Structures are given as C-alpha cells and as structure tokens.
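User: Um, any thoughts?
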Amino acid sequence: QVHLVESGGGLVQPGGSLRLSCAASGFTLDYYHIGWFRQAPGKEREGVSCISSNDGSTSYADSVKGRFTISRDNAKDTVYLQMNSLKPEDTADYYCAISFLEVPGTISYLTSELYDYWGQGTQVTVSS
C-alpha cells in the first residue's frame, strides 16, 4: 500500500519559516508527481506546489511563488516544502499526495483530482 506521512507543521509568526516533510513509501513506479495541497476552514483545497519524478521540474501556485520551495531527497524518499515569509493566509492543513497519472503537458499537476493517495495532513498556523 502507498503511504504518505507529513510532518513539520506547527505555529509560526508572520514572516517566519517552516519546512514540511513528506515521506513516501509503498510504490515502485518510476513516473509520478508528488504535490502539496492545503485547505483552510471554509475554503476549497488548493494546490500549493508539486515536483516531478521524471525531471525534477516544479510548479507553484501564484500565491506562494518566491516564498515556498519544493525539493526532493531521493536517498530518504522524502519531499520537502520549505515555506518562508509566511503569512496569516497560509494558515491551513497541508497535505502531500502522489499522482501516477500521465496527462498532457498543458495540464497542471496542481489539481487535486489527479492525485491518487493522500497523507493525513499537518497543520500550519501563522499568527502573531
């Protein structure tokens, strides 16, 4: 079974930083994407960032560009989301997910419907 486990959430002041981790296991397919999504109370789930296993290419939501960075540590089968310059509007539950689907290049992988397996989430609260 595919398992994804997030960690690293917590409480941080505006302008601060957090690094989220997503440990992935239970699969052997070579082509996949791992994405980070978030959902705040009363709001729809939105794609934050994703990374491709094929070439390491990354994508970011406009709201986090320049502040968040997604990366991989293949030796540990872990994907990270470094979040800097955090804002109160970043407050949400953050989820990592994995997609094994291949879609046309014009389709963004920051789309939750493309993802098959999800972690349990980790809470991020940005507040003064």
